[in-house]
Amino acid sequence: xxxxxxxPGRVPLRADALGQLPEGVVRPVYDRGKLTPGxxxxxxxxxxxxxxxxYIHRLMQQGKAMDWAIIGAGVRPADAAQRDRLLAQDCxxxxxxxxxxxxxxxxxxxxxxxxxxxxxxxxxxxxMADTAIRIVxxxxxxGGYYRDPATGGFDATHxxxxxxxxxxxxxxxxFGAMIAALRKRRDAGQGPFTGQSCDNLQGNGDVLRQTxxxxxxxxxxxxxxxxDSECTFPNAMVDCIVPATGPSEIALARGFGIGDAAPVTHxxxxxxxxxxxxxxxxxxxxxxxxxxxDDVHAFETMKIRILNGGHQVIAVPAxxxxxxxxxxxxxxxxxxxxxxxxxxxxxxxxxAPVPGxxxxxxxxxxxxxxxxxxxxxxxxxxAFDGSSRQPGFLFPSIRACLASGIAPSGLALAxxxxxxxxxxxxxxxxxxxxxxxNWDMLRQTARQARxxxxxxxxxxxxxxxLGSEPAFAxxxxxxxxxxxxxxxxxxxxxxxxx
Length: 498
Known about the structure:
Blueprint: E1 11-12, E2 37-42, H1 46-50, H2 52-61, E3 69-73, H3 79-88, E4 93-99, E5 102-108, E6 111-114, H4 122-129, E7 135-138, H5 159-166, H6 174-187, E8 194-197, H7 204-219, H8 221-230, E9 236-239, H9 247-255, E10 258-259, E11 264-266, E12 271-274, E13 291-292, H10 296-320, H11 326-331, H12 333-347, H13 359-370, H14 379-383, H15 386-404, H16 409-421, H17 439-449, H18 454-457, H19 460-463, H20 470-486, H21 488-496
Parallel strand pairs: 1-10, 2-3, 2-7, 3-6, 4-11, 7-8, 12-13
Antiparallel strand pairs: 4-5, 9-12
Protein name: Mannitol dehydrogenase family protein
Domain Mannitol dehydrogenase C-terminal: 295-481
Keywords: Oxidoreductase
């Protein structure tokens, strides 16, 4: 294991410089010139490069999956800057594992190109229409699937969906581009590809199918039926904590002697569990630790409710208190105790065990992972987009409590903390910069809720009918009043019985 900080030189990350990388930095042993594409990945951020791309790279290190190289893509103007960074270094990425016992670096090379980012997505459509592409995968965030947050149904009224339905040959979204490519393949008498969501969503494959098929139906019902019957959309659970990249991560790569403009740091844990449902074939992922199962749902439920839900439980109060990282949050005794009590009393009772892991053992695992001081995962990043993450990660547990007669007191407090957070002011008086796509609306409503908590629960786009459930609403209102009157720490002590 190499440890950054001791190498004074710096090798620019490029294909022709791989042989010059310092000793101890793992690098590709395969001939990248012999790779051919099999996957287009849309939304090429840090998580993809630390997760799916790493698994493909690991197969290639074994001399396998050489025809499954990845072509990157983006549909947002901001993706063009990422394209420039990665193309300048031949699409290579430095992965830095942050283990409390030491750090190690590995250069991965499974990605071979990054498509131009265009308003009409012409290059992306053309690439996906190529039958060499057998999987189109995505990481577009939990809130990127054009769903109604309250119902989970397809939002056909969104301007992006209306645009793509009216202009199916020049779509602006990833889903419209997928449909346009599939139309070309069908019209040419060619087969479909698999759509693979790599986002943290319960039933992420089902959600992707819903978005693609529903959007296609708006402009071409026959094509929608063909997609629904011919394409596959496997559900999967993905897991690896991957912080955002900033100056400190770039400096960390330099400490290993590598000049990488877009390195990725990650924890020393990965998991990928998926259904084996690929209409055009797949890489032999099982050879590098991927679990294939017919019961992804159980793994998803455990991870989304305990890990992702737990992230929301701790990140929001930590942000209000000015704690910068998740590890800082876990070092705060009240926040850590809050996490353990909420999960033990209100989340874990509704989570089934999976092979080799009980919910309580999984809580102990994430306690250790969240507490890793080497991971500079910011509370701000984790608290982002609460209007999607609260309904996706916490509300299922609230509903499960209500259905079983358990008072969701801690979960109501977690939701009240989010309402307090959306005021946009920390307890030290500092300003919380906008941290949700709906920030202005949330902040205005949070101000109203200071005196009238019901105003917050009336956010139908977030709470749906949950806000009118007395067994939840009364607890929420009581906790929100306490937060405004007494502050976060005193309110947490009250919940914990201290």
